[in-house]
Design a protein that fits this description.
Elements lengths: L4 E5 L6 E5 L3 E6 L2 H7 L4 E7 L3 E5 L3 E6 L2 E5 L6 E6 L5 E5 L13 E3 L30
Parallel strand pairs: 3-10
Antiparallel strand pairs: 1-2, 2-5, 3-4, 4-9, 6-7, 7-8, 8-9
The structure holds zinc ion (ZN) (2 copies).
Length: 141
């Protein structure tokens, strides 16, 4: 795990951020909330310490999508940027697809596969979890 710094931005470029590793929980999330927030079939996320995430230009808008869950996005272009959850208050997740180079961090698991759209084919080598690793229904499927 390195302490490399990753840079990203929204579609219109008004919001820029940096996230400094180690990056945890690299995943594809198939949950309905991510799907609706992004208007996409799934969302790729990575997570860093909230202290290691910095908005370097512009200002994010926040949508509280569930109690204690805040999704950061650009109100000009609609790009989904971050996810934070009071239950994991030391973490902030950011969308891997908003990185300047989205190839530098690759998901290592798929979560909330119970919500996966039937026409989605994703990398079969990635472990799949019905919800999240460590949950009651933890058996990888
Ligand atoms: Zn934007
Ligand atoms: Zn999700």
């Amino acid at each position: 795990m390195s302490d490399e710094t990753y840079s990203g931005s929204c579609f219109c470029g008004s919001i820029k951020y940096t996230a400094t590793g180690p990056v945890r929980y690299l995943c594809l999330c198939h949950c309905e909330s991510c799907r609706r927030a992004a208007g996409a079939p799934f969302v790729a996320w990575g997570s860093v310490d909230v202290d290691n995430f910095e908005i370097t230009a512009g200002s994010m808008s926040i949508h509280e999508s569930s109690p204690g869950v805040c999704r950061g996005f650009c109100k000009q272009c609609g790009c989904s940027l971050t996810y934070s959850n009071k239950q994991r208050e030391k973490d902030i997740d950011f969308t891997l697809a908003s990185l300047e180079d989205p190839t530098v961090l690759a998901p290592t698991a798929q979560i909330y596969v119970v919500d996966k759209i039937s026409w989605i084919e994703t990398n079969p080598d990635l472990p799949q979890y019905p919800t999240v690793p460590g949950a009651e229904d933890n058996d990888s499927i």
